[in-house]
Amino acid sequence: SKAQLFDAENKVKITFKDVAGLDEAKEEVQEVVEFLKKPSKFTKLGGKIPKGALLVGPPGTGKTLLAKAVAGEAGVPFFTLSGSDFVEMFVGVGAARVRDLFKQAKDKAPCIIFIDEIDAIGRMRGKGQMPGSNDERENTLNSLLVEMDGFGTDSGVIILAATNRPDVLDSALLRPGRFDRQISIDKPDILGREAIFGVHLNNLKLSPDVDAKKLAAQTPGFAGAEIANVTNEAALIAARRDKEHVDMQDFQDAIDRVIGGLEKKNKIISPEE
Ligand code: ATP
User: Is 57 among the annotated ligand-binding positions?
Assistant: First the structure.
Protein backbone atom coordinates (compact mmCIF):
# COMPACT_ATOMS: atom_id res chain seq x y z
CA SER A 1 0.00 0.00 0.00
CA LYS A 2 2.94 2.32 0.56
CA ALA A 3 4.20 2.62 -2.97
CA GLN A 4 6.60 5.49 -2.48
CA LEU A 5 8.73 5.17 0.60
CA PHE A 6 10.82 8.15 0.07
CA ASP A 7 10.16 11.51 -1.32
CA ALA A 8 12.42 13.71 -3.39
CA GLU A 9 12.18 17.45 -3.63
CA ASN A 10 14.49 19.07 -6.12
CA LYS A 11 13.75 22.70 -5.44
CA VAL A 12 13.31 23.43 -1.77
CA LYS A 13 11.91 26.87 -1.08
CA ILE A 14 12.24 26.82 2.70
CA THR A 15 15.23 28.70 4.10
CA PHE A 16 16.50 29.70 7.54
CA LYS A 17 14.21 32.71 7.63
CA ASP A 18 11.26 30.31 7.80
CA VAL A 19 12.74 28.72 10.90
CA ALA A 20 12.19 30.92 13.94
CA GLY A 21 14.49 30.72 16.92
CA LEU A 22 16.72 27.63 17.06
CA ASP A 23 19.74 29.91 16.70
CA GLU A 24 22.26 27.44 18.06
CA ALA A 25 20.96 24.62 15.89
CA LYS A 26 21.08 26.86 12.84
CA GLU A 27 24.66 27.74 13.64
CA GLU A 28 25.54 24.08 13.91
CA VAL A 29 24.00 23.18 10.56
CA GLN A 30 25.49 26.23 8.83
CA GLU A 31 28.63 24.18 8.31
CA VAL A 32 26.61 21.55 6.45
CA VAL A 33 25.16 24.28 4.23
CA GLU A 34 28.66 25.54 3.39
CA PHE A 35 29.80 22.04 2.58
CA LEU A 36 26.83 21.26 0.33
CA LYS A 37 27.32 24.52 -1.55
CA LYS A 38 30.86 23.62 -2.45
CA PRO A 39 32.00 20.16 -1.36
CA SER A 40 35.35 20.40 -3.16
CA LYS A 41 36.39 23.41 -1.09
CA PHE A 42 36.46 21.14 1.95
CA THR A 43 37.50 17.79 0.58
CA LYS A 44 40.48 19.08 -1.39
CA LEU A 45 42.26 19.91 1.85
CA GLY A 46 41.70 16.41 3.11
CA GLY A 47 39.21 17.34 5.81
CA LYS A 48 36.54 14.88 6.81
CA ILE A 49 33.04 16.29 6.89
CA PRO A 50 30.63 14.43 9.17
CA LYS A 51 28.34 12.19 7.15
CA GLY A 52 25.39 12.61 9.36
CA ALA A 53 23.87 14.55 12.21
CA LEU A 54 21.04 13.62 14.48
CA LEU A 55 18.43 16.25 15.28
CA VAL A 56 17.10 15.43 18.71
CA GLY A 57 13.99 16.92 20.26
CA PRO A 58 10.29 16.63 21.00
CA PRO A 59 7.65 16.37 18.25
CA GLY A 60 6.72 19.47 16.31
CA THR A 61 9.77 21.53 17.24
CA GLY A 62 10.97 22.10 13.69
CA LYS A 63 13.41 19.26 13.03
CA THR A 64 11.99 18.53 9.60
CA LEU A 65 11.71 22.24 8.89
CA LEU A 66 15.36 22.85 9.80
CA ALA A 67 16.59 19.91 7.72
CA LYS A 68 14.61 21.20 4.77
CA ALA A 69 15.96 24.72 5.29
CA VAL A 70 19.51 23.34 5.07
CA ALA A 71 18.66 21.99 1.63
CA GLY A 72 16.96 25.27 0.71
CA GLU A 73 19.91 27.38 1.84
CA ALA A 74 22.37 25.21 -0.03
CA GLY A 75 20.13 24.88 -3.08
CA VAL A 76 20.37 21.08 -3.13
CA PRO A 77 17.77 18.29 -3.46
CA PHE A 78 16.10 16.91 -0.35
CA PHE A 79 15.28 13.22 0.01
CA THR A 80 13.00 12.16 2.86
CA LEU A 81 12.40 8.80 4.38
CA SER A 82 10.13 8.20 7.34
CA GLY A 83 11.11 5.51 9.80
CA SER A 84 7.54 4.75 10.72
CA ASP A 85 6.75 3.80 7.11
CA PHE A 86 9.04 0.82 7.46
CA VAL A 87 7.23 -0.69 10.38
CA GLU A 88 4.77 -2.78 8.43
CA MET A 89 6.90 -3.74 5.55
CA PHE A 90 7.37 -7.09 3.90
CA VAL A 91 10.67 -8.82 4.39
CA GLY A 92 13.35 -7.46 2.12
CA VAL A 93 11.44 -4.39 1.01
CA GLY A 94 12.78 -1.97 3.61
CA ALA A 95 16.40 -2.81 2.92
CA ALA A 96 15.84 -2.51 -0.81
CA ARG A 97 14.25 0.90 -0.38
CA VAL A 98 17.20 2.13 1.61
CA ARG A 99 19.61 0.96 -1.09
CA ASP A 100 17.47 2.56 -3.76
CA LEU A 101 17.32 5.83 -1.87
CA PHE A 102 21.08 6.03 -1.42
CA LYS A 103 21.65 5.21 -5.06
CA GLN A 104 19.36 8.01 -6.20
CA ALA A 105 20.86 10.43 -3.70
CA LYS A 106 24.40 9.71 -4.90
CA ASP A 107 23.27 10.44 -8.44
CA LYS A 108 21.88 13.81 -7.35
CA ALA A 109 24.70 14.83 -5.02
CA PRO A 110 25.33 17.20 -3.43
CA CYS A 111 22.09 16.61 -1.57
CA ILE A 112 20.48 15.81 1.75
CA ILE A 113 18.85 12.62 2.91
CA PHE A 114 16.50 13.24 5.82
CA ILE A 115 15.32 10.28 7.90
CA ASP A 116 12.39 11.21 10.10
CA GLU A 117 11.65 9.08 13.17
CA ILE A 118 14.85 7.14 12.75
CA ASP A 119 14.13 5.37 16.05
CA ALA A 120 11.44 3.34 14.26
CA ILE A 121 14.23 1.67 12.23
CA GLY A 122 17.15 2.25 14.54
CA ARG A 123 16.03 0.76 17.85
CA MET A 124 18.53 -1.33 19.69
CA ARG A 125 18.64 -4.70 18.09
CA GLY A 126 16.94 -7.43 20.02
CA LYS A 127 14.62 -4.97 21.74
CA GLY A 128 11.20 -5.32 20.23
CA GLN A 129 8.16 -3.36 21.40
CA MET A 130 7.46 -2.05 17.95
CA PRO A 131 4.71 -3.38 15.73
CA GLY A 132 5.78 -5.15 12.57
CA SER A 133 8.47 -7.65 11.99
CA ASN A 134 11.59 -7.26 14.05
CA ASP A 135 13.71 -9.16 11.57
CA GLU A 136 12.65 -6.82 8.86
CA ARG A 137 13.51 -3.79 10.95
CA GLU A 138 16.94 -5.24 11.62
CA ASN A 139 17.41 -5.83 7.91
CA THR A 140 16.50 -2.25 7.21
CA LEU A 141 18.80 -0.96 9.93
CA ASN A 142 21.64 -3.11 8.65
CA SER A 143 21.21 -1.86 5.15
CA LEU A 144 21.23 1.72 6.43
CA LEU A 145 24.51 1.06 8.27
CA VAL A 146 26.02 -0.60 5.22
CA GLU A 147 25.01 2.31 2.99
CA MET A 148 26.36 4.89 5.42
CA ASP A 149 29.68 3.11 5.63
CA GLY A 150 29.80 2.60 1.90
CA PHE A 151 30.20 6.20 0.86
CA GLY A 152 32.76 8.77 1.73
CA THR A 153 32.11 12.41 2.49
CA ASP A 154 33.36 13.13 -1.01
CA SER A 155 30.08 11.69 -2.29
CA GLY A 156 28.45 14.98 -1.24
CA VAL A 157 25.52 13.29 0.48
CA ILE A 158 24.75 14.44 4.02
CA ILE A 159 22.30 12.48 6.12
CA LEU A 160 20.22 14.27 8.71
CA ALA A 161 17.96 12.21 10.93
CA ALA A 162 15.40 13.17 13.53
CA THR A 163 14.31 11.47 16.72
CA ASN A 164 12.71 12.24 20.04
CA ARG A 165 14.08 9.02 21.51
CA PRO A 166 17.87 9.08 21.21
CA ASP A 167 18.01 6.76 24.22
CA VAL A 168 16.56 3.80 22.31
CA LEU A 169 18.84 4.10 19.29
CA ASP A 170 21.14 1.25 18.43
CA SER A 171 24.64 2.34 19.39
CA ALA A 172 25.87 1.24 15.97
CA LEU A 173 24.11 4.28 14.53
CA LEU A 174 25.99 6.63 16.81
CA ARG A 175 29.49 5.43 16.04
CA PRO A 176 32.06 7.74 14.47
CA GLY A 177 31.47 8.05 10.76
CA ARG A 178 27.73 7.61 11.19
CA PHE A 179 25.49 9.89 13.28
CA ASP A 180 28.33 11.05 15.44
CA ARG A 181 26.87 14.50 16.01
CA GLN A 182 23.75 15.42 17.89
CA ILE A 183 22.01 18.74 17.56
CA SER A 184 19.33 19.40 20.10
CA ILE A 185 16.12 21.09 19.13
CA ASP A 186 14.18 22.08 22.21
CA LYS A 187 10.69 23.35 22.73
CA PRO A 188 10.68 27.12 22.38
CA ASP A 189 10.71 29.40 25.41
CA ILE A 190 8.50 32.49 25.45
CA LEU A 191 10.83 34.44 23.14
CA GLY A 192 11.07 31.48 20.79
CA ARG A 193 7.28 31.25 20.64
CA GLU A 194 7.03 34.94 19.91
CA ALA A 195 9.47 34.50 17.03
CA ILE A 196 7.54 31.49 15.69
CA PHE A 197 4.28 33.44 15.88
CA GLY A 198 6.10 36.21 14.02
CA VAL A 199 6.92 33.90 11.11
CA HIS A 200 3.44 32.45 10.85
CA LEU A 201 1.53 35.72 11.35
CA ASN A 202 3.24 37.01 8.24
CA ASN A 203 0.92 34.93 6.11
CA LEU A 204 -2.29 36.43 7.51
CA LYS A 205 -4.36 39.55 7.16
CA LEU A 206 -4.20 40.79 10.72
CA SER A 207 -6.15 43.25 12.79
CA PRO A 208 -3.83 45.75 14.56
CA ASP A 209 -4.69 44.31 17.99
CA VAL A 210 -2.85 41.08 17.26
CA ASP A 211 0.27 40.91 19.40
CA ALA A 212 2.82 38.11 19.07
CA LYS A 213 4.19 38.79 22.56
CA LYS A 214 0.77 38.28 24.16
CA LEU A 215 0.16 35.15 22.10
CA ALA A 216 3.52 33.74 23.21
CA ALA A 217 2.59 34.38 26.84
CA GLN A 218 -0.68 32.49 26.39
CA THR A 219 0.85 29.37 24.86
CA PRO A 220 3.26 27.87 27.41
CA GLY A 221 4.43 24.42 26.40
CA PHE A 222 3.48 24.84 22.76
CA ALA A 223 5.89 23.60 20.11
CA GLY A 224 6.19 25.27 16.71
CA ALA A 225 3.75 22.82 15.17
CA GLU A 226 1.06 23.83 17.66
CA ILE A 227 1.75 27.50 17.04
CA ALA A 228 1.38 26.96 13.29
CA ASN A 229 -1.85 25.17 14.10
CA VAL A 230 -3.16 28.05 16.24
CA THR A 231 -2.37 30.55 13.52
CA ASN A 232 -4.19 28.57 10.89
CA GLU A 233 -7.18 27.89 13.17
CA ALA A 234 -7.45 31.61 13.95
CA ALA A 235 -7.60 32.43 10.23
CA LEU A 236 -10.32 29.82 9.68
CA ILE A 237 -12.32 31.03 12.68
CA ALA A 238 -12.13 34.63 11.43
CA ALA A 239 -13.26 33.53 7.97
CA ARG A 240 -16.21 31.66 9.45
CA ARG A 241 -17.11 34.89 11.25
CA ASP A 242 -16.99 36.78 7.95
CA LYS A 243 -14.23 39.05 9.16
CA GLU A 244 -11.87 41.01 6.94
CA HIS A 245 -8.99 40.58 9.38
CA VAL A 246 -7.96 38.02 11.95
CA ASP A 247 -8.17 39.57 15.41
CA MET A 248 -7.08 38.71 18.93
CA GLN A 249 -10.45 37.14 19.80
CA ASP A 250 -10.03 34.68 16.92
CA PHE A 251 -6.60 33.80 18.25
CA GLN A 252 -7.93 33.34 21.77
CA ASP A 253 -10.55 30.91 20.50
CA ALA A 254 -7.99 29.13 18.34
CA ILE A 255 -5.68 28.70 21.35
CA ASP A 256 -8.54 27.25 23.40
CA ARG A 257 -9.34 24.87 20.60
CA VAL A 258 -5.75 23.69 20.21
CA ILE A 259 -5.39 23.25 23.98
CA GLY A 260 -8.62 21.22 23.94
CA GLY A 261 -7.19 19.03 21.20
CA LEU A 262 -3.96 18.54 23.12
CA GLU A 263 -5.84 17.57 26.27
CA LYS A 264 -7.82 15.03 24.33
CA LYS A 265 -4.63 13.49 23.09
CA ASN A 266 -3.57 13.34 26.74
CA LYS A 267 -0.49 15.31 26.03
CA ILE A 268 1.05 16.98 29.00
CA ILE A 269 1.64 20.66 28.64
CA SER A 270 4.73 21.50 30.60
CA PRO A 271 4.64 24.44 32.99
CA GLU A 272 6.02 27.75 31.85
CA GLU A 273 9.78 27.99 31.98
P1 ATP B 1 8.02 15.63 14.28
O2 ATP B 1 9.08 15.15 15.22
O3 ATP B 1 6.64 15.52 14.83
O4 ATP B 1 8.18 15.17 12.87
P5 ATP B 1 9.35 18.11 13.73
O6 ATP B 1 10.24 18.48 14.86
O7 ATP B 1 9.97 17.54 12.51
O8 ATP B 1 8.18 17.21 14.25
P9 ATP B 1 8.24 19.99 11.95
O10 ATP B 1 7.52 18.97 11.15
O11 ATP B 1 9.46 20.57 11.40
O12 ATP B 1 8.53 19.40 13.37
O13 ATP B 1 7.26 21.18 12.36
C14 ATP B 1 5.91 21.18 11.98
C15 ATP B 1 5.49 22.56 11.57
O16 ATP B 1 5.50 23.43 12.70
C17 ATP B 1 6.41 23.22 10.56
O18 ATP B 1 6.08 22.88 9.26
C19 ATP B 1 6.19 24.69 10.87
O20 ATP B 1 5.02 25.16 10.25
C21 ATP B 1 5.97 24.71 12.35
N22 ATP B 1 7.21 24.97 13.10
C23 ATP B 1 7.84 24.15 13.96
N24 ATP B 1 8.94 24.71 14.47
C25 ATP B 1 9.04 25.93 13.90
C26 ATP B 1 9.99 26.99 13.99
N27 ATP B 1 11.05 26.92 14.78
N28 ATP B 1 9.77 28.10 13.25
C29 ATP B 1 8.69 28.20 12.45
N30 ATP B 1 7.78 27.23 12.31
C31 ATP B 1 7.93 26.11 13.02
Answer: yes
